[in-house]
Amino acid sequence: MTTMDRHIITRTLLAYTFLIVALVIFFILIHYLEHIDDFLDRNASMRKIYLIYYPSFIPDIILRVSPLALFLAAIFTTSRLAQSLQVIALQTSGVALQRLVIPYVIVGIFVSAVMFFAGGWVVPRTNQTVLTYDQLYIHSRAQHLYVSEIHRRNDPTSVVTVGYFDRRTETAHRVQLQRFNPDGTLLERVDGQQMVWQDSLWHFTYATIRTFDSGYEERRIVAPLDTVLQVLPRDLARTERDIESMTIPVAAGYVDALRRSGLADTGRDMVGYYSKYAYPLANLIVMLIALPLACRRRRGGQTVQIGIGLLVAFVYLAAQKLTEPFGYTEDLSPLLAVVLPHASFLIGALVALVMARK
Questions:
Q1: What would the pLDDT profile of 51-70 be if each residue is shown by its tens digit?
Q2: In this structure, are residues 282 and 340 in contact, taking their beta carbons and an 8 Å threshold?
Q3: Is residue 249 a part of any domain in this protein?
Q4: 162 CB burial (10 A radius; 0-12, 13-18, 19+)
Q5: Would you call the peptide bond into 224 cis, given omega within 30 degrees of 0 as the criterion?
Q6: Is residue 161 assigned to a domain?
Q7: Could you tell me the residue range of the domain that residue 188 belongs to?
Q8: Are residues 169 and 129 part of one domain?
Q9: Would residue 273 be called left, alpha or beta, if left means φ above 0 and alpha means ψ between -120 and 50 degrees?
């Protein structure tokens, strides 16, 4: 590693840290001003809001703004080099512009790895606190009491599906319990209109049990039916933001349960799961974009280059947000909806690097 490599890495990480701090403060202020009335109306403890809620919110903010902060930091560092003629001096001495990509790749891989770990294990745990406070002080009462379209993995061979769950009475409606053979074929399905949590058991008023064996179906009605499940009321009370509060191993099991159940309307969960892997890579991709974008001297200096950087960052973010809804509705494969914008910008960055002057 050369002195120039160390210089670029140090300057980029310092600028990145400064921008992260600035963006975190900005987003917390905006969020607080937006929801201060909700906190006051619901008599929230300001001490807990300041000392528990917002500190728990910070890791999620960092994860979300990291690509933008890193991109602007790289644009700033590179444009400083270009404006001070250091890039031209390197080229004059025989160093190809593509050689400068090494420190950018090092920073991109490092930050991507940190954000992957944070998004896969740290942020889900802190988000549990954030979601709890959101439910208490920000969401409407109706959102507090009812959760709809719930899919939960009961154990490695069974899945529970609930149409909607009433938190107040701990009652699940339109319930379906599916049990599978080890090879993935459906063994048994239990259907019930209502399932109530009583005395540490789930109680069906009546249930229809279908057993499948060698292509034959046996059907019987049981009334009442008490059953023991690993799924508890607190598990059913989670909201549609489930995936945000799951670590990658837990989310993998959850997604596997969705696949095995054959349920519809799982696109949002699948997009959230794949994003845990794809989104951290944006930190590497923006570093590859920054070098060819900012390495030339431009009229207007750094202001113009930072403005162009903001425009590119906006287009990148917009591309992600535009494709995700297609994954939610499964008009596109959820995996493709997540990967497509990242792959497109990665290809664009590599083409720009190849075409950059030597």
A1: 999 999 999 999 999 999 99
A2: no
A3: no
A4: buried
A5: yes
A6: yes
A7: 145-244+254-266
A8: no
A9: alpha
